[in-house]
Amino acid sequence: MRSENHVKIRIENLSLSFGGVRALIDVSLDIRDNEILAIIGPNGAGKTCLLNCINGFYKPQKGEIYYEDQGITRIRPDKAAKLGLARTFQNIELYTGLSTVDNIMAARHVLMKQNVLSSALYFGWAHKEEIEHRKTVEDIIDFLEIEPIRKKVVGVLPYGMRKRVELGRALALEPKVLLLDEPMAGMNLEEKEDIARFIIDIFEGQGVTYPETPVL
């Protein structure tokens, strides 16, 4: 049985620059199981850049990132997602022309085992797998209390609801590590309280259960 101090992600001396702008300078950090870790700083401090390095959007010039002792410093974002590094964004990244349920379901395709042809033709195990994934999506919708908007197009939803949908899409990846970038930015007090409640419930394994999932 692993200790609660087990290091999930280790960052060592990470540096990132854009031309003459130094976004990250020798950042070292451990993210452990059963931990909610907040990175606090003013705009432009490099918080988003750090998350972008962890899940493969940016490639640092110096330093190393390890996930479960596996080097992931230059991993592709799709590979990071398959490893269980789920991400939300400061600026909401959703398919605005699709419904809530379709946006969340889109994340499940990363986890599907059947090939594209069998899934498209709905053969055998592909059909069974699709049903199982849809059940998971419905559980997430219930957990985030977004059943009334499940069929609504995301582009017309209020900002706070879109943030919930984005969180739902991250949860659909069954995250081993949940990376939340400004999860409450732009929300009113009630919306912030709801998101805080969801984050705590995720961490404590209530509603949707991902054991030992650290939240950054």
Automatic annotation (TrEMBL):
The family database entries (InterPro entries) matched by this protein are listed as: AAA+_ATPase, ABC_AA/LPS_Transport, ABC_transporter-like_ATP-bd, P-loop_NTPase
Annotated keywords: ATP-binding, Nucleotide-binding, Transport
Pull one GO CC term from this UniProt entry: plasma membrane
Q: What residue range is the signal peptide? A: none
SUPFAM superfamilies in UniProt? P-loop containing nucleoside triphosphate hydrolases (SSF52540)
Q: Name one GO molecular function term.
A: ATP binding
Q: Where is the ABC transporter domain?
A: 9-215
**Is the keyword Nucleotide-binding assigned to this protein?**
yes
Which SMART domains is this protein grouped with?
AAA
Name of the molecule in the record: ABC transporter domain-containing protein
**Source organism per UniProt:** marine sediment metagenome
